[in-house]
Every structure is written in structure tokens, then in C-alpha cells.
Design brief:
Growth Hormone, Chain: A; polyamine biosynthesis; alpha/beta; membrane; 15 helices; Rossmann fold
Length: 489
């Protein structure tokens, strides 16, 4: 094998490995959410697979060259099949009842560990062939081997995060990983000791059905209806309600438009937040919404208060596009009064609309904005959990600087769980008046926990949504940027 052929193969396989690792974390989100815990499990599992694969590949590299090449070709075929079928395997394990942290760990190991082992197994033989291809230049050859591995990892990370997952989706990305592994097989030929006349010429005919299987895996369809690099989104329409799900978490809902149907908020936690806003805010408030979701609360605010202004910060443009297509009430409000807002807003004297939409991370917007608000709603989620960097003392301290009135926070946690306690501790440090309400607990032991914090006393509401009650939150350590929320374990 020529030196540059070996280097190119090392680069491609390294890129394939990192693409596979990042895609594994993305496809796991619809089943088990995305958090520090899930990403730790994915990274640890895949790296363990890489380590074992390199060790086993070292034994293969010591064998007679023709035998080693034959084994590595078989390994690449196995890589192609397992990589392409990883989403199917994950879905099967989930359907068999894998739940919670234990189920997540089992799913990650079974779905992603075997392919991770095989992806890295060819590397020792390729390194050996590269070094042998340039006698007397072993040092520089080995340096090029290591550089190709690092460069391939960089390319794989960029390819997965900026191209494959946002534009093709996770299922197609896994199929692409399988196809890339198969495309490496024809280059693994034995040219004999002198490197001149070709020796063994493996038949490629057996690869045809494998290639069909790998490419056919993409036809299984995506794990959700709409997919970006940030969200896996589904829309359902049942019982007169249109619902939006992100990573299988119910994010928003609207009643199906009917002449005889009242236009009310569907999800109970949104009714509580709106009841608080209705009681606490004046006739023309300026409200910041961190987390656009289904835009149901901004829509309700602007419908009820013609002079109100709202800015909705939504990290994923696809969410906004899905809302425009499928949630008629919010879509009408966006069409009527929505505009693309920058960090500084439309500028003095300009009035392009009343609903400014910012597609950015909520923390980045808070850090950079120069606008001021009368109230804020923190309702941003990544899967079923609030992103850790949005529930820290530093985040809410910055929010306190730009919001003169109350702040409303929606969480998903146990009634007195660690996320609720840590967030409550932050708000209690920054505001003299903090109240908490919790909703019904689901099968997982989690439910909505809502907090309202204000510099002035908050009047009691006449009624709470059905199943909701005032909550007592225990003292705890406030989350910070350095020591924050890690997700469910």
C-alpha cells in the first residue's frame, strides 16, 4: 500500500469515528434527552470502544500482511453494517423498556459500543503500512499518521456538527458513516513486498448486498418528522389539539381552530404563567421570552394587550418554521406582527412589529442585549431539561440587570428536586419575593415546577390549574457557571 493511501484512509476513518460519536449523542436525545449525563455516557462508551478497537487492531497488524488486510476488510464491512443500523438498534432497545439512567447506559453500550470498536480496529495496520512504505523515514511517517488521525477527528466533528446532522439528519448520517467505511474496503489491497505488482485483488461482489443494506438503512426514515442539529421535532393532532414535541418532550400546544372553540392555552403550566403575567403586568409591558417553543405565551400576551411588546429568543430556527407551518394561532401572530430582532432591537423610533424573534442562544442574548424589559419568562428546554447555563446565578444576575419586574421560570423536575432547589436558591438570593407552584407528577416522578420572582410582593391568584398546588422548596446551594445543573441521573 502506498504511503499516502494509508494516510488518507487513517484520516477518513478518524473522521468517521468522530462523526459517529457526535451523531450518537444527537440520536440519543429523542429517547433519553440531552444533558451532561447523556453526553458523558456517549463519549465514555465510544472512547472505550476506540481503545479496545485499537488494542485488538494491534494484534491483527502483527499477522501476515495478506491475512491482516483480509481481517481489516471484514472489520470495515462490520463497521458499515453496525454504524448504519445503530439508530434501529437504539429504538429497539428503547421499545423493549429501557428507561431512566440505567436504561440509557444499557442502550448506549449496546447500540454504539460494538461499532466504536470496529471503527478504530484498522488504524494499527494502516499505521504499520504507512511506516513500512517509507524505509528510513519512520519518524516522519509516524508523525504523519498521528497528524492524519487528529485532522480526521477535526474534520469529522465539523462535518457532523455543521453539515451532516443539520442538513441530512441523524439516520442519514449513520448511513453515511456506513457507506464511508465500505468505500475504504477496495483500497486495502496487498501489493506484495516490493510494492510493485499487485498481489491479492479482493472481489468486491460480496460488498453489493452490504452496500444495499447500508444505503437502505437511510430509507427507514428519520427518528422524527423534522430534524435539525438542535431539535428533533414532531407534530401531532389529537382530541382537537395540535401539539409540538421536541425530542419527545411536549413543548407547546394549540386548540384546533373552530368557531365554537374558546381560544385558550392548552398546557396547564402556560395557563399559570399567563395568569401571573395577567395579574402582575400593566397595559403595555415589554416582555422577554427566553425559549420561543410554540410561541403560545407571546401570542396570548400580544392578543390581550394591544400595546404590549415581546422579544422571543429561540435557539433553533427550525422550531419557528414548524410553528409557522402547524400552529395556526401563533403563526398568524408571527405573520401579522413578527420581525427579526437583533440584540439591540429595531432601533429608536422604529416599529416593525410587536413580536421580535431572535434566533440565538438565550444566554448569549442576555449577555449582549442592551434592551430593558418589564418582565421575563424563562422557558427554554433542551429535551426535557433546562440547559445548565440558563439556570446559574450569573444568568439570573444578568437578567436582574435588564428586567425591572417579575421573572417567571418553568422547570421540569421532582416536586422538591435538585433543579427546583438550585434555581429557587438563585432567585431567593436576587429577589425578595419568590413563590413556587408544582404540577402533577408523571410516571417518571417529574412534573412542571414553576417559580415567580419579583422585587415587589406578588398577589395570590384566585385559582390554580387543575392538579397544581403551591410548593415548598427546600434550601440548597445556588447553581453557578462553575458548579451548575448536570441533568437527571
Amino acid at each position: 500500500m502506498k504511503f499516502w493511501t494509508a494516510i488518507a484512509l487513517i484520516l477518513v476513518l478518524s473522521a468517521l469515528g468522530l462523526t459517529y460519536e457526535i451523531a450518537a449523542g444527537r440520536v440519543l436525545a429523542p429517547f433519553f434527552g440531552t444533558s451532561l449525563v447523556t453526553w458523558t455516557a456517549v463519549i465514555a462508551t465510544v472512547l472505550a470502544g476506540f481503545s479496545l478497537g485499537n488494542a485488538l487492531g494491534g494484534f491483527m497488524a502483527e499477522r501476515e500482511r495478506a491475512v491482516a488486510l483480509r481481517q481489516v476488510r471484514a472489520v470495515l464491512v462490520g463497521t458499515a453494517v453496525l454504524a448504519a443500523l445503530s439508530p434501529l438498534i437504539l429504538g429497539l432497545i428503547y421499545s423493549l423498556g429501557a428507561r431512566g439512567t440505567g436504561g440509557m447506559l444499557v442502550s448506549v453500550i449496546v447500540a454504539f459500543f460494538p461499532a466504536s470498536v470496529l471503527i478504530s480496529a484498522p488504524s494499527p495496520l494502516l499505521a504499520r503500512l504507512a511506516v513500512e512504505a517509507r524505509p528510513g523515514r519512520e519518524g516522519s511517517s509516524l508523525g504523519m499518521v498521528l497528524a492524519a488521525g487528529s485532522l480526521g477527528a477535526i474534520l469529522g466533528a465539523v462535518l457532523a456538527g455543521f453539515v451532516a446532522l443539520p442538513f441530512a439528519g441523524s439516520v442519514a448520517t449513520f448511513a453515511g458513516c456506513g457507506a464511508a467505511a465500505l468505500l475504504c474496503v477496495p483500497f486495502l489491497r496487498d501489493r506484495g513486498q516490493g510494492g510493485g505488482e499487485e498481489g491479492e485483488k479482493p472481489s468486491l461482489a460480496p460488498l453489493i448486498p452490504i452496500a444495499a443494506l447500508v444505503l437502505g438503512s437511510a430509507a427507514l426514515g428519520p427518528v422524527c418528522r423534522y430534524e435539525s442539529g438542535l431539535s428533533c421535532i414532531d407534530i401531532t393532532r389529537t382530541g382537537g389539539v395540535i401539539s409540538l414535541y421536541s425530542d419527545r418532550t411536549h413543548q407547546a400546544a394549540e386548540p384546533v381552530p373552530r368557531a365554537d372553540a374558546p381560544e385558550d392555552l392548552v398546557i396547564p403550566y402556560t395557563r399559570w404563567i399567563w395568569a401571573r403575567m395577567d395579574a402582575d403586568l400593566g397595559a403595555a409591558p415589554s416582555v422577554l421570552f427566553v425559549g420561543g417553543g410554540g410561541y403560545t405565551l407571546p401570542t396570548r400576551l400580544l392578543e390581550s394587550r394591544p400595546e404590549a411588546q415581546a422579544i422571543a429568543v429561540e435557539i433553533d430556527p427550525l422550531i419557528t418554521e414548524v410553528v409557522r407551518r402547524h400552529l395556526p394561532r401563533a403563526a398568524a401572530m408571527i405573520a401579522e406582527t413578527g420581525y427579526e430582532a437583533g440584540v439591540e432591537g429595531p432601533g429608536e423610533g422604529a416599529a416593525p412589529g410587536r413580536l421580535g424573534i431572535v434566533h440565538a442562544d438565550g444566554r448569549v442574548y442576555l449577555n449582549e442585549t442592551v434592551r430593558r424589559y418589564d418582565a421575563a419568562v424563562m422557558d427554554a428546554f433542551s429535551s426535557a431539561s433546562v440547559p445548565a447555563h440558563l439556570v446559574t446565578r450569573e444568568t439570573f444576575a444578568r437578567l436582574r440587570e435588564i428586567v425591572t419586574g417579575p421573572v417567571y421560570v418553568n422547570l421540569i423536575d421532582a416536586p422538591d428536586g435538585p433543579l427546583a432547589r438550585g434555581t429557587h436558591a438563585i432567585l431567593s438570593e436576587l429577589y425578595p419575593h419568590v413563590i413556587a407552584v408544582r404540577g402533577p407528577v408523571g410516571p417518571t416522578g417529574l412534573g412542571n415546577v414553576m417559580l415567580a420572582a419579583s422585587p415587589v410582593p406578588l398577589d395570590a391568584l384566585e385559582a390554580l390549574p387543575e392538579g397544581y398546588e403551591m410548593a415548598a422548596i427546600s434550601p440548597a446551594r445556588a447553581f453557578t457557571d462553575d458548579r451548575g445543573w448536570v441533568g437527571y441521573r
